[in-house]
Amino acid sequence: MLQLLYTAIFSEMILILTLVFKTPLRKLVIITLDRVKRGRGPVVVSTVGATLVVVLASSLYSMAKIQQRTIEAGVVNPTDQVLMSKHMLEASLMGFVLFLSLMIDRLHHYIRELRLLRKTMEAVKKQSRSFEEGKNGNTEEHKALTEEIAALKSEVKKLESECEAKGNKAKTLETEVEALKKQSEGFLMEYDRLLEDNQNLRSQLQAVDQNSLHPDDKKSI
Questions:
Q1: CA 129, CA 120: separation in Å to the nearest integer?
Q2: How far is CA 54 from CA 67, 91, 191, in A?
Q3: Which of 35, 45, 124, 214 sits most deeply, having the most CB atoms within 10 A of its CB?
């Protein structure tokens, strides 16, 4: 029994040292403990722990019984003293075994939590890097769009100025056309007046010619 307990204690101490220090064996130990905690592993561990607790309680009970018998007898019996020492050693070793088992379980749990935390931090860093890269890419794209918008604005202003110049030219041409139209109307009116004057002059000449012909006719009569 004592040899088995000493073997378990030294094995647990080696296992704890393996978990504490970063060595190539730590990954293998962690994988082994992960497998132990799956399936029937927890049931077996709980059974072994319960057995140790029962044996520890039995040893403590035996120690209390021997102590009570010694007090009642008033004399220390060498046999009881040896049994007392044996039970005390076994109880101490079993308590130490249970304590080291609890330490191994907690170390394994914290190492897993630390690994998950590191993976989460790496994922967050990758996301932040991708976000920064995307932000830089968006900044360059934004700059390119800004430059393109500025070029389009200058082109629009240029086209607006050209359109305004053409509009002014069109207004000037319209005023010139209107002036020419009025001038042509004046020419037409002047032409009509001249035609009327010409008609009047012709009628007057015809009247004069007729008057000049009538006196000759009278003389002949």
A1: 14
A2: 20, 11, 141
A3: 45
